[in-house]
Amino acid sequence: MMGLIIGLGLGASEPGLDAYQSAESAYQKFIKNPSQVKYHHNWEKLIAKFDRVAKDYPTCSKADSALFKAGKLWWECSRYSSSRKDKENALIAFGKVVNFYPKSSLADDALLARGEIYLELGDKNLARQEFEKLITQYPSGDCLGKAKTQLKKLGYPSSNAGTTPSAPLRKNDAIALLLQDSGPESESYKNSSLTELIRIRYWSSESYTRVVIDLTQRIEYTSWHLLKPDPSLGTPPRLYTDLKGTILSSEFKAQYPYKDNCYELPIGDGLLKRARAGQYQPEVVRIVLDIDSIQDFEEFALPGGEGAGYRLVIDVYGEKKPEIKIITQPGTTPQPIPAKRPTKPLTIVIDPGHGGGDPGAIGPNKLKEKDISLAVSKALEQKLKKELPEAKIILTRRDDRELSLVERTAKANALEADLFISIHCNATPDHNAYGIETYYLDNTTDRASLKLAARENFVSEQVMSDAGSDINKILADLATNSKVNESIPLAHHIQKAMIDELSKNYSAIKNLGVKKAPFWVLTGATMPCVLVELSFISHPREEKRLSSPVYQEALARGISLGMKRWLKENPSLTGWVAN
């Protein structure tokens, strides 16, 4: 049913239940106070309470209910505000229920709600797809009858839900020859345990392209294979992978044009012509990247986060940058070739964490991490521009907008950055915790570091723990280009400089040191990279300091000083820093 879920009598034995009960209590008071309902900011404040339950306690038994309630509240708010944006926020919240908790009893309710919202927005096609998905994926759900009724009103027979449009097969092309009997009417398509392909995204430059494949859950997949061009068929060279136990979602089909039995995403950046996806077998999706010209590629998987349960990432490279060689002799310490000023400008990418609909951590007095990370990033940008005038200093975002974690790293890679610094604020339910720490990318068994990485990666601690083998594989690949090892001294320089700068004018500056953790935002970076946790926004004293422009300037000053010290020690970039 579409009824609101009210968690009465919840105990504190499970993490997150107290937070959920608090949000429910706030909701009960809200609906009984007509004067509160009139103001949009009151709705936002209430919805944020439910959002925080799902974000801070994603494995809590009420996480799905919290997201569903957030969707319901946005939808109800839209009826007061007549705002399209509020309806779109409801769609996002309900979508998270389906993608993050596909086995939840509320997943079919969320799909029904999405369909009805699309009808309110006047998009009958997307509404139809939501109803069809509900019928296909949840044939035993209590919303089945309502979905069929909606389809009938729209003029679509529910028996044809989800069918793929027919198209002539392309003769002799093994990638385009999709099985004709693999439509959603087969029993396998009614199996809700199958993974769904949600979307394909890409970011690119002249010499680099990142392609991200978003899926609803973890899958078994084959490594990417390179096929040579076939002049007899007129096919270009191409990369392909098969996703087992996977089907194309209705959302995916709605986003891309259908041609020659494949859904196509044009790219045309000089490296890749396009991406194609098709239902190669009843439970196998094949992804193909048609190539213009590439030199190399790397692949890895990222569990969870950002509206997907699992993500496959492939980084494609064009012409490689020349490597800096180190002169070594037996029994001696490696010595760099005498430094010369590089011909390419030094490029530093600063990444203000969170943004847009993702506020990050929120302090006791409602200070938002996204605002502080942006303010410190801008202060750091100004210092670096003044102190390194010939360098390019670039922010991944300059305003209050939301960026995916994979997009942030992709931007740095596309710019061929020499350094990547991600700026964040720490937070914990323990309001006595305080201090400053800097992280580099590596796996860890430290519980606190994994918990922090889980929060920044938008996944649960269990997902982080289960992702150990994926992380180790990624790090093994990164070890070959020494970026992890180069990041460690960078992290130490920044940490020490921040502590030294802040200790000049502030008491109780706690040095939590340099640590390692598997942050997705650092994963796949082709340059030395670190993540800085400025202070604990959850600690009352540090929240107050973080709100001060003077404290923000001191943080930026420390980070800048640490970066310059590292640059002076780096053999390939020494020429950029004056003695």
Question: How helical, in percent, are the residues?
Answer: 25-40%
Categorize the overall geometry.
globular
Return the CATH class of the largest domain.
Answer: Alpha Beta
Tell me the β content: 15-25%
Question: In the CATH hierarchy, what is the architecture of the largest domain at level 2?
Answer: 3-Layer(aba) Sandwich
* Whole-number total of structural domains: 3
Count of alpha and pi helical runs: 17
Find the CATH superfamily of the largest domain.
Answer: Zn-dependent exopeptidases
- N-to-C terminal Cα separation, in Å? 69 Å
**CATH fold-level topology of the largest domain:** Aminopeptidase
Uncertain segments are: 1-13, 160-192, 321-340
Mean pLDDT: 80
Class inferred from helices and paired strands? alpha+beta
Rg calc? 25 Å
Number of strands: 20
- Summarize the biggest pleated sheet: 7 strands, antiparallel
Structure description:
With 579 residues, the protein is of the alpha+beta class. The chain has three domains: 17-160, Tetratricopeptide repeat domain (Serine Threonine Protein Phosphatase 5, Tetratricopeptide repeat, Alpha Horseshoe), CATH 1.25.40.10; 187-317, Immunoglobulin-like; 332-576, Aminopeptidase. The protein is built from 17 helices and 20 strands. Strands 3, 4, 5, 7, 8, 9 and 10 form a seven-stranded antiparallel β-sheet that branches. The protein has a six-stranded mixed β-sheet with strand order 16-15-17-20-18-19, sandwiched between helices. Strands 6-1-2-12-11 form a five-stranded mixed β-sheet. Helix 1 (17-31) runs antiparallel to helix 3 (40-56) and helix 4 (63-81) runs antiparallel to helix 5. The longest helix is centred in the C-terminal third of the chain and has 21 residues, at 483-503. The protein is globular and about 70 Å long.
